[in-house]
Amino acid sequence: xxxxxxxxxxxxxxxxxxxxxxxxxxxxxxxxxxxxxxxxxxxxxxxxxxxxxxxxxxxxxxxxxxxxxxxxxxxxxxxxxxxxxxxxxxxxxxxxxxxxxxxxxxxxxxxxxxxxxxxxxxxxxxxxxxxxxxxxxxxxxxxxxxxxxxxxxxxxxxxxxxxxxxxxxxxxxxxxxxxxxxxxxxxxxxxxxxxxxxxxxxxxxxxxxxxxxxxxxxxxxxxxxxxxxxxxxxxxxxxxxxxxxxxxxxxxxxxxxxxxxxxxxxxxxxxxxxxxxxxxxxxxxxxxxxxxxxxxxxxxxxxxxxxxxxxxxxxxxxxxxxxxxxxxxxxxxxxxxxxxxxxxxxxxxxxxxxxxxxxxxxxxxxxxxxxxxxxxxxxxxxxxxxxxxxxxxxxxxxxxxxxxxxxxxxxxxxxxxxxxxxxxxxxxxxxxxxxxxxxxxxxxxxxxxxxxxxxxxxxxxxxxxxxxxxxxxxxxxxxxxxxxxxxxxxxxxxxxxxxxxxxxxxxxxxxxxxxxxxxxxxxxxxxxxxxxxxxxxxxxxxxxxxxxxxxxxxxxxxxxxxxxxxxxxxxxxxxxxxxxxxxxxxxxxxxxxxxxxxxxxxxxxxxxxxxxxxxxxxxxxxxxxxxx
Length: 628
Fold this sequence. Notes:
six-stranded mixed beta sheet; alpha+beta
């Protein structure tokens, strides 16, 4: 086939422009990225060969080779993994083969530090080779294809790349970097070995280089290191999770995490354990320091890789952790599962269920340890992942109490999400028999809600909740340590022993004294309000809306409508402050119906909603102002 010249996908062209301006603050990590890709290619071959051993082509010793040519100024990273066919070379090296490409490119800001982290997160490390090379040539042949169907891919990192068919007897891929003049330091065995030891020592495959020995110079020529023709392994060549913990440094864990997650930030926490018993497996799990952009996509891929007896099985083993822990990254290596395990079998296997339970408990223990011993790291964790942790209240009944203890909230006494339910209980007033909370679309809306007025007056702390998940999650958390949770915006306000007899008596008298006006309001608002009643919860505001006990909150109803979901018909209750001057003037007002609708719509606005007919609301307010 003749050579073809093709254009990069637009996003790749943009990415290459960023890469060539040295987005990576540490350029030597290009080698880590390319070695990681080579290791992945070998893992994929091992997996496909489970069903077709002929793919090994009588070469089952998988390895990564590093070699360099000082005269040609080239550095080559080779593997005997799965390799690429010509269509795969065009697809994988000419596009960003990841979902959400448009979102990814939209986030590239021009901030070099942030952009570099994003590039790593999206697993496009191949292009990091252009940091040190002004041209990259890739030669490859996919396992199982004839020698005549090799492919050569070449680009100078501009807007185009060339592809041609070649003959290639070796299975796998060779990436040849034609180094820039300011990157010739990588044509040095000692330099390459030091980078491998620093970043890729945990790779489970042998990384081999040609051995060098010192050769004395002749005829007054200086001596130099010379290749011997023998190959030596320059890394540990043992999967990190199989090594003794005493032989693994924090740096080893950090680099392994970066390899499997494509994240350039060190993790917040790590756990590494061998579990023995009825089910045997090794777990090496990490909690990231930064949430991915697609964290709230519940269909996103899981971050745990599954191995069976050190043989790679699958990248995204979703059955190994519950969905609410989808941010966890790591490796599970099982001694019990069959090598040909399928995703369907994972859902049914008893061993997998045991692994899932064990990993869930281990991750929760990691989070509890952060909460107990490292306030700064726990604050970082909760800022990034607190909202998805709440999903576990409805998904993981067995661990609901543990999850409830880990939750943190803003309250009327603090500006940060730092209040644990246990802390709230300690501060409860004598006679208080509920944990009070309010949900709203924003913290500002929650903090300024009229429903809080009586609680402020009495100095009762109320938790403020503005995460979209809060309304749903609290359906599954009715009490904490025996104390019920009570929404201040649902049902009648009953402060029990915290409300003195005079207040109760005043409320009863108001309900009786203002009954004619309340009935009149109810008639005027029959299409909007389920009921109208006097209340003691208001101090400064004339009215507020509450939801009957057992009904869906107005906030949750709005969220479901915005998502296109059906919402059962429900009307709120209008509660009025009988002591407020506006309410007291209502009964004798000539334009009673208009004022009644204004009162209702203002109560709706105060809790973050919008009137059903904004134009009618504006017209009524304008008419009222004109009469003043």
